[in-house]
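Good morning,

Both structures are done.
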Amino acid sequence: MSSRFYLLLPLTSALVYAIAVLFLKLAMSRGASSWAITYLSNIAMGLSFAPMLFFGDGFWHISGVPWAIAAGALFFLGQVGTFRSLHTGDVSIATPALATKVVFVALLSLALPAKNPDPDLWIAVVLTMVGVILLHQGPRHHTSRPWVTLGWALFAALSFASADLLVQQVAARTGMALFLPLMFGTVALISLPLLVPHLARLGAARAGAWRWGSAGIILLAAQSAGVVGSIGWSGDAIAVNVVYSSRGLWSLVLVALVAHHLGVAEGTRDPRTLVARLAGGVLILLAVLLVVL
């Protein structure tokens, strides 16, 4: 495609993602269970991709089924890591750290046949490490556990990267119209029985918690469909993911502007902390650009 207007969709999805995680953090700060939010979000994603089975164009092959299930299981682990990172610490730490997914994709791809290490890859790894350290800077509120937050976020990035690699290697040749619904259907099916023990406690959260939580869950499913749709429409997965990686910086900006007004405790109320975390987010984004470009 000569036009690059399709990149507006992942850019919009990145902003929607940042808004969604802020809403979800707000819901959790009001007592909504992070596990219930995780499982409900996964079910919403499964439902959003299900229509592709009936209305999706293109071929599909049965050999992709076990790989789609494996990709779904890895994506599920990534979702668990994402929401645990949001539950244990600041959005301004968790979301930029999730941008390390592309670096993990590059590292894991070294195991593929005929893949030689690129010096730029190791520069990106160093930038990522420095960025992660900067994200850790600043004063903490009493509920923040920055290293735990980073650990969960990096675990999520690794899980998502592994799922992406399976999609990259298998989905195109076995059929996206089957692979993606089966992948996200697996995520939903794993989540459904795990949600049941949490249903009785949904009403225990403070007033307004699930209003924010529901909005966040819907936005999260919508942005996921937007990113996948833009890749399918454009065939330009690299450019789409580069633009989508801006979600970390969007999160930092939103946290700085509105988190305090919404009652979300964040370390970025201190200007020096905000500058350090912005610098960390920029370094991680530079690492992403270095890897994919």
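Second structure follows.
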Amino acid sequence: MSEIELPSVSAIEAESRQLALAASPYELHGGLCGWLAGGGPSVREWPAKVLADDALPAPAAGSALDELRLASAAQLADRSFDFALLLPDSEASLAERSGALFEWCRGFLGGFGLSAGSVAKLSEEGTEALGDLAKLAAAQPQSDGDEEDEEALVEIEEFVRVAALLLHGDCALAAQHRQKLN
């Protein structure tokens, strides 16, 4: 597990309600990660940018949403691949976990589109990964499943995690690298 821990889902939920954000913690984290992966800046007023609503207030410094931003940005930039998705724990039902993963993907696509725009320079793998994330974002959670479904969900979670890192590499890290060369 990463040195840089994400805040708890309950802390994010509580602050989201306080700020009247219309997204689940999973969708918020996906949106934030998509925003950062697409090259968006790590700024305290990220909810306004990710949810495309300039009227939203910036989270207080040190709050759960600010910690979520700092931890996510650090994890994405970390070369040891310790990037974690904010998802329910393994005790949650398959439906709850798969639903949260699909919400995360929907958020990621929205945030990524807002920061990277339509002219993102993606590798062939990045283009394919983005297409696969779009398919997952459109998926519906299963109500129940067996051991095979549990294993498949774990594999899908790992794919999503790696896809986010790949897209971050294509957009954010490549742009930083180009700036250093110029």
